[in-house]
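Our consortium's second objective concerns turning raw sequence data into structural hypotheses that experimental partners can test. To show how far this objective has progressed, the report includes one record in full. It was chosen at random from the queue rather than selected for favorable results. The single chain below, 496 residues long, was entered without modification.
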Amino acid sequence: MGQRICIIGSGFAGLSAACFLAGQGFEVDVFEALDKPGGRASLWEEKGFKFDMGPSWYWMPDVFERFFQQFNRQPSDYYQLVRLDPSYRIFWKETAVDIPAGAVALGELFERWEPGSSRALQLYLREAARKYEIAMQKFVFKPGLSWLEFLDADIIRAIGKLDLLSSIQRHVGCYFKDERIRQIMQFPVLFLGSLPQDTPALYSLMNYADIELGTWYPIGGMYRVVEAMYALARSLGARFHFQQAVEQIIVKQSKATGVLTKTGFQPADVVLATADYHHVEQSLLPEPYRQYRPSYWLSRRLSPSAMLYYLGIDRKLTGLRHHNLFFDTDFDRHARHIYAEPSWPEEPLFYLSVPSITDPSVAPPGQENLFVLIPLAPGLDGDTPRLREDYLQQVLNRIAWHTGQHISSDPVYQKTFGPDDFVNRYHAFRGNAYGLANTLRQTAVWKPRMRSRKVENLFFAGQLTVPGPGVPPAIISGEIAARIITKYLHQLLPVI
């Protein structure tokens, strides 16, 4: 077609958009500041270990399948998926419990804690499945540029079934009384960016994704998905330029003419920014062409930041699963440290992934690959080496207490990644790890727009815009952006 699109960033949203736009026959050039594709879903390799630096949960497999099917492909053409069973293990103060895959087995576990809860789980998941279906069919794939997108009889009828005005905490409480069950059912919303009492009950749909659709793992790690999408994009004609950070978007008369990198000016008919939205607006655009003031961004509620540890352990471990949630300290107190009273938690909850249990290829023989995540409030000051080491020792001590394995002296490799690194490596606004919180007031048209109001041919995709944080939403965001860009460019073609 001869129309050139410059994409800023090669995370899941950028890769998705590159596939759809190149598949439409446009000239697509992707500019990435890092030395390989993936953005926040980077791969770190050292001493025989392969660490997924970002996402480690493969949920909503239907979204991945839908994506590849639109190019007459299947995920299995690129990587092998295995369903994890148990899905994960939860460590409480005095006990550890495996969360089995599937509603039947989970219902049996719940029933031992609370008579009648297996039946309650069936009813809960039936409603959650309906919300998931409505959301995927009627809402998620909308660009959110106008409320008129939602003036549809089916959508209006569906809104009343989505529990937008009730909280997930209250919704769960209507079905279950046991505190352990409530924590399990509320866990998936922790990374949405607000407390369960402030998160709409709509997001019980995530319980459906967790329990019914399952927790999966691509052999080789999550980076295999990045490699698959990258290979697909290249096969469709997209070109990638690594270690080519975009330094400026050039705008003339309210229209982007291209982008500036260290190698010079790159002309474009359209610019699609999938890098951090705040960074693009506040740093890459001349001030007259910015849609949002600094005060707007400071008023946004962000999802958590995180302290991450990548550890190589010189022996095999027992008593752990692929995914492990340590809820062995005060759940509500840590949540307040993140959302209500931002501060460094004294005794944080944390998540531990040991992918080498499932996949020996990510660690040398006889060794273990550990990934630790401590969720934190965004924008905290004081990310120091001493603080990082103190948290790590606390994590290792608590793992030892629960499993009887003292591994403080066992790491043969250790790398940390904290809030300051999110800012420096990814330009993440206030060090956020996931994007904007999924609150009702930051949904659909209340999110930062996918299309600039001030630059005619500038578009956005990724976790700070529609539909929201997470790998499946990022893939969907790239598709939505590609669709509205295609429509825009087709309108520019002369009528023959």
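The partners drew two points from this record. DSSP finds 15 helices and 19 strands in the chain. The domain at 102-213 is CATH 1.10.405 (Guanine Nucleotide Dissociation Inhibitor; domain 1). Both points have been shared with the crystallography group to help prioritize constructs.
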